[in-house]
Design a protein that fits this description.
With 824 residues, the chain is α/β, with parallel strands linked by helices. Helix content is 28%, strand content 17%. The N terminus is likely disordered.
């Protein structure tokens, strides 16, 4: 067990040794958003981050730069919102790839196309205009569990699984493999490691954190930094195969009230230090070259505008000499700022502003603010020096990339082996009634919608921002969990049958059911309670169906957090928390499937790095808290060597079904899940039909005898964050009879609040009987006056003419370049 109080004790000891008054300590515990730097631990970027020759080079270059060029260095644009020609003109300091950005807007672009795309920007930045040496861009990518934006890359388990492994050396090797795969495609910089300490699993980014305990994060931050960047050497750039990293998100993003993404961490300063700062000193000491600042707030003040945090603590007390970068338009959330104007962020200590689609306006306004003295020239000079220092250290001025184009590194066997090892070590055995390990000679049924779905096992931040829409063919080097199981039992003379629904041709000896959360990222993953599948327990029904037939059931639970799963655990003979294991499903089979005699090939070694809730209303639930009463405690994990018994669990969740607010799924599996209701009124009627599965679709027929309204409605929900996140209403449908008159889609926000858009072309242009998908941006409706903070009807369709459509799914979905905003 880690010594969870050690950092807190050291902070207090430091305060006493430094002679701080009791009044200062009391103030630091009372909640203002102004820091007291002497309370914070000391750290320092290694002296090898720079050298006299480098600083002299930077000084000379800066003396030749115009104020326009200096301002440009501090701004970062998204590759989807800037062209190489625009970069030639504006000479920005950086280009990034956002979660849904990709070459040519194609999330499945080839690795070679990635190289070409990045090099087009690089060449534009280096286009010689004379006057002084041209300054290269630094190209940033969110490679958070491997080089997850590129088809063919190795997808490692998300951080929550790595935290369960408790293996710092494994973390370092994952960093090295990720850096090599990034270097092969020409990228310079990853936005990682994430060193958040999630304290409420309702937060949609929980899986990005290693643990709820700061000590795990503290032991991982340094090794991941060294894995990505290598050790810094004075006077030399990063070694071949290494790229720049970015510790994120500074600070307290895992401690927001209620687990709300981009929310407010209402904490005394001592707790901000003890819980949420633990990963930054070791990352800084290891030489991290950049730090990304969080969207979130501390006691009501956005970090991006908090000078006491960024300048006094991060750059001052903790001695960080790299550069500080913002998050996606986060500066626009600072009080008094917009996406295109934020002197406050610069003056607070931000060095590079991430202005993905707002870069041009931000450049113009920042330049004017510098010339007017609103942003001191000394502040801009400091920012530019830090950015250039990192560019030199990253070897960008040398423009040598020996690994670029070596695409055999993507999904290389040695990298896949590391990922498979990580999967094995991340698995946590919660329950085992003697059914595991399985004999490889057994007849195994593999069921559940996660069994043969690598995309579901990989989760968010995988090829697309939300991780949705992925097929197994998008992972050419990967293996699904079913694939790994089938391979393992075949080797032992057994057999494996795949059936998502649990049906089979011959009764199996055992069933492995793979199920869990569908992919999500950021705010889209925020939940109201810790209950799994509230009001819609289709996976529980599958487990019970198999148990009722006398088949032993092994549950493999895929999730980005611990969830209240008491009913599912009760219905299982063994229950394994597999987290989000990524592209190497064979690692699951390595531990579950033994030899022919049933002796284990690998034992379970994973231990919970998050407390597992006894009830769905227990969040926040963290080790060391007063009244700590989990179902499975932090550090829990059974093994074959050390088994344990789990008694029948209470199936009282502690919350009412009404407490679970389902904001994003409106029609799934043939019905509208709570709290939504599907109704047809006027000249339209619906009936349930089969469309590839039993009763999974509705057919709606408009008679043309007046206005017909098909609507999904319920109690008000807040979709404002989804709107600013560029989400869309997605409809999977086929047209059975084309519309005779105009068709409108609406979103409502109360009896006298709502707006419509004309979607006639969506249905009139469809081939009869052909399944299609339409995505209509939420922002379309906000622009027409819908109050997105209280949406009561997230989908409605109406026409007064004849029309017939069949639909299987209505939900919110990420805009992956395929969402539209009808102009009419």
């Amino acid at each position: 067990m880690f010594l969870r109080r050690s950092l807190h004790v050291s902070v207090l000891a430091l305060a006493i040794a430094g002679g701080l008054s009791g009044a200062v300590l009391a103030q630091a515990s009372s909640g203002p958003a102004t820091t007291h730097p002497a309370l914070w631990p000391k750290a320092a970027s290694p002296a090898t981050i720079t050298d006299a020759k480098t600083e002299a080079f930077i000084t000379k270059l800066m003396s030749q730069m115009t104020v326009e060029e200096k301002v440009a260095q501090t701004i970062q644009a998204d590759g989807a919102s800037i062209t190489p020609e625009e970069l030639k003109k504006y000479r920005l300091g950086s280009v990034l790839v956002g979660g849904n950005s990709a070459p040519d807007g194609n999330d499945r672009a080839s690795a070679q196309r990635w190289i070409e795309w990045i090099n087009a920007f690089r060449a534009a930045a280096l286009d010689n205009r004379g006057g002084h040496q041209e300054i290269p861009i630094i190209f940033g990518v969110d490679a958070v569990h491997g080089h997850n934006n590129v088809v063919g890359a190795t997808i490692f388990p998300h951080n929550i699984g790595l935290g369960a492994a408790r293996d710092p050396d494994l973390i370092r090797r994952i960093g090295e493999a990720t850096a090599q795969e990034m270097a092969a495609t020409g990228a310079d910089w990853t936005f990682g490691p994430t060193v958040a300490v999630p304290r409420d699993v309702r937060w949609g980014r929980t899986y990005e954190g290693y643990a709820e305990d700061p000590e795990v994060v503290k032991t991982y931050a340094g090794p991941m930094t060294l894995g990505l960047q290598g050790a810094l050497v004075a006077g030399k750039p990063l070694a071949t195969g290494h790229i720049a990293g970015s510790a994120k998100h500074f600070l307290g993003d895992g401690g927001t009230d209620g687990g709300k993404d981009q929310g407010d961490a209402k904490l005394p300063e001592t707790e901000l230090i003890r819980l949420h700062n633990a990963g930054y000193p070791p990352a800084i000491d290891a030489g991290i070259l950049s730090v990304m600042v969080s969207f979130s707030s501390w006691n009501g003040v956005k970090h991006t505008g908090n000078k006491s945090l960024l300048t006094d603590v991060l750059k001052g007390r903790m001695g960080f000499e790299g550069f500080v970068v913002g998050d996606w338009n986060a500066h626009g959330q600072v009080e008094g700022c917009t996406n295109t104007s934020c002197a406050q962020a610069y003056n607070a200590g931000m060095d590079m502003i991430m202005a993905p689609d707002s870069w041009k306006g931000l450049y113009d306004n920042t330049l004017a603010q510098v010339k007017a003295g609103q942003i001191p020239m000394a502040r801009i000079d400091d920012a530019v020096r830090r950015i250039l220092r990192v560019k030199v250290k990253a070897g960008l001025f040398e423009n040598k990339r020996p690994l670029e184009g070596k695409l055999e590194l993507l999904g290389a066997p040695e990298h896949r082996a590391i990922a498979r090892e990580a999967v094995r070590k991340s698995l946590v055995l919660l329950k085992n009634e003697g059914v595991l390990p399985l004999k490889s000679s057994a007849r195994v049924l593999v069921a559940g919608d996660g069994a043969d779905d690598i995309g579901k096992a990989a989760g968010g931040w995988t090829l697309t921002w939300q991780g949705t829409g992925n097929k197994n063919s998008d992972f050419p080097h990967g293996q699904s969990i079913f694939g790994g199981i089938a391979e393992a039992v075949k080797a032992g003379g057994g057999s494996a049958e795949l059936s998502m629904t649990g049906d089979y041709k011959q009764k199996p000896d055992v069933a492995i059911v793979v199920f869990g959360e569908n992919p999500y990222a950021e705010f889209q993953g925020d939940i109201a309670t810790a209950e799994y599948q509230p009001g819609d327990k289709t996976d529980l029904a599958l487990l019970k169906k198999l148990k009722a037939q006398g088949i032993p059931v092994v549950s493999v639970f895929l999730s980005g957090r611990p969830l209240w799963t008491n009913p599912e655990i009760n219905a299982s003979d063994a229950f394994v928390a597999a987290w989000l294991p990524g592209s190497e499903g064979g690692g699951v089979a390595d531990v579950l499937i033994g030899d022919k005699a049933g002796k284990p090939r690998f034992d379970f070694t994973g231990k919970l790095s998050y407390s597992w809730p006894k009830r769905a209303d227990q969040e926040p639930l963290n080790v060391g808290d007063k009244g700590y009463d989990p179902l499975f405690a932090y550090g829990y994990g059974l093994s074959y060597a050390k088994p344990g018994k789990v008694a029948a669990l209470s199936e009282e969740s502690g919350v009412s079904s009404a407490a679970a607010v389902n904001v994003d799924r409106y029609f799934i599996a043939g019905r509208s899940p709570s709290p939504w209701t599907l109704t047809a009124s006027g000249a339209v009627a619906t009936k349930t039909i089969d469309a590839g599965a039993q009763e999974n679709a509705r057919q709606a027929v408009w008679t043309g005898e007046g206005q017909g309204l098909l609507a999904i409605s319920g109690r008000p929900v807040d979709l404002s964050r989804q709107t600013t996140g560029d989400m869309a209403v997605m409809l999977r449908y086929r047209v059975d009879a084309s519309p005779e008159k105009p068709v409108s889609m609406a979103i409502g926000c109360g009896e006298s609040c709502g707006a419509t858009v004309d979607v006639t072309s969506t249905f009139s242009g469809a081939k009869l009987g052909e399944w299609r998908t339409a995505k209509i941006k939420l922002s379309c409706f906000k622009a027409k006056g819908v109050d997105m903070t209280r949406v009561t009807a997230p989908f409605a369709l109406m026409t007064s003419g004849r029309m017939s459509i069949t639909f299987t799914e209505i939900r919110l979905a990420s805009n992956e370049g395929d969402a539209v905003c009808p102009t009419n």
